[in-house]
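Predict the 3D structure for this chain.
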Amino acid sequence: MTPTRASLSVLSVACVVVLASCHARSGKSCTLDTDCAEGALCWLYTGTCETPCTQTSDCALGLLCMCEPDRECPEVTDDTPLDDLQGGACRPPPFVDATVDDGPTDTGLDPDTTVPPDTVEVLDTVTDTTDLDCGSDGSPDVLPDGGCAMPSTFPSPTLIKTMLRIGTDGNPGAGLDLDDDPATCSPQPDPLVPDAECSAGIENAMWGLGLLANDYLTTDVEAGSLNVLVELPGWDDDGCVFTMNFYKGTRVPADPPACPAGGEPCDYEIFADSFDASCMANSTIPGAVVSGTHLSAGPSVQPYLFTLVVVGLDLVIPVHEARFEGELTPGAVGPAALSGIIGGWIVHDELMAVFEAILPGEYPFPGKDAVIQLVEDLYLNDIIVNDRDMDGDTVMDAASVGVIIEAVPATIVGIDS
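Done. Predicted structure below.
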């Protein structure tokens, strides 16, 4: 998890200046120790600021003083309390996920027992955490063998996208001002492409891809065959930072496919491949902040993975420097509704590589070569225009995109593996 933590360092340091008042709060969202008030540490498995403990008596009744596997914690024995500087976090007693059987729990009492180096070490006992869901925080945990123990619960507010499409021009409501310059926008008006125009600094040069995608996206979302969920771990509506995670999943039960309007949130299982090798969400936009009813997030350091359907093909497209701007309707816990735009940059070569990687037999009529040429023609005819040089070689190689979404509450009940 360390690389992900480091990749968020610039964002986190910026938030220290802007949101200093947030750092005094124990239990609030964080990604780095510097996000927290002096004397508190950021515990990655819960993503919250916690005051270090040195022994279980420092904790409330029923909690134990524990180290996290990611930290260089000293070995804990009856005679060696936790180091004052590194400290520990007060946590509920660990439990073993019943879905994975890795043998009996180590008690630390048998001198011949070898304790795995990644275990959570607790005063008076040493527990094997091979399949421990640390804190039930909605993120899977890294196992000693490098695998992931999937979470048993997802307590964070979650929404399901009920509308998903690419903006059809470069005007407000179809994209974002990605370069923060109101004097520039895209696509520029072209007499050969009368529908392409822009204003107010909005960038959405990828609008033409919507000609091949939007009808399919609308059909699949409404039919329930494309379910994209938005999880908000660390949710906070008073100006502190949290994260937006995006997953694909399946409705539980699958029939009927549509959820009743205004009814109780429907249940979904998310696909196991929604997480990377470090057990973190594959598709995420960090730095989310609520101000009144406005929610903004990003830009992301690592690519946001955009779920797209083009001429019936299911695609996952990297979007660089992704950000979100939208409006929410407050609910009891999290938003009662969310609408807004995800903006970013799609690199031409990365987009075409996704098409090339699909086997010919999976393509609809008129076949792989014809569909790929259809997409390339959008570029050749300036229906898609690269408006960003991503690699610094002075050649425009990426196009801006605006993805419009609407979402309502949902519940993640597990993993569909």
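Residues 1-21, 74-85, 95-138 have pLDDT under 50 and may be disordered.
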